[in-house]
Design goal:
By secondary structure, the chain is α+β, with helices and mostly antiparallel strands. The protein has three helices and ten strands, in the order E-E-H-E-E-H-E-E-E-H-E-E-E.
Length: about 170
């Protein structure tokens, strides 16, 4: 009889116990109707049980399993680059964002499964969404991120999320 655990009740290593598949109703909150889809399980309830919260958020999605997936790891304190690289490799999505609270802005770093990158738009959107949904930032508040590319901001814009990205001067080629 399935116990709901992924290990046998007697603790002896055996093949995983088969659990019945549950289909959860998916809903789209008004503020992210066309950006990000989440299921009906409360993100706050999930985060309370995780020692290091790691989420997968589908940015630019109008339905589950669509859009552009990004991992988001909500840290309490900075982690080593080596640890973040291992987590990103385990997540195995295009980018995994690591968010850590700061004095004036959240620290934000992005890792692919193989290397750290200097900028990632969809993982920034996903990070802002995760912070709002987890209750770490009031939903009406803008969020500032300190990154390798400078300060980025995210705010709600109707039913979408708007972010600022760095601009660089155009240089003419000789």
């Amino acid at each position: 009889k399935p116990s709901g655990l992924d290990v046998a009740p007697d603790g002896i290593r055996k093949p995983l116990i088969i659990r019945p598949f549950q289909v959860l109703k998916v809903w789209l909150p008004d503020c992210h109707r066309y950006n990000i889809a989440i299921d009906t399980i409360s993100i706050k309830a999930i985060l309370l049980r995780m020692s290091v919260p790691i989420l997968q958020v589908d940015a630019f999605a109008s339905r589950p399993f669509g859009g552009n997936p990004a991992g988001v790891c909500l840290l309490e304190k900075p982690a080593t680059a080596e640890w973040m690289q291992h987590v990103a490799a385990e997540m195995n999505v295009a980018e995994t964002a690591f968010v850590v609270p700061g004095d004036k802005a959240f620290g934000l770093r992005w890792f692919t499964p193989t290397v750290e990158v200097g900028l990632c738009g969809h993982a920034t959107l996903a990070s802002a969404h995760a912070l709002w949904e987890a209750g770490r930032v009031p939903k009406a508040a803008a969020i500032a991120f300190e990154t390798l590319s400078g300060i980025l901001t995210a705010e709600r814009d109707g039913d979408r999320v708007a972010i600022t990205l760095p601009a660089r001067r155009v240089a003419l080629c000789p």
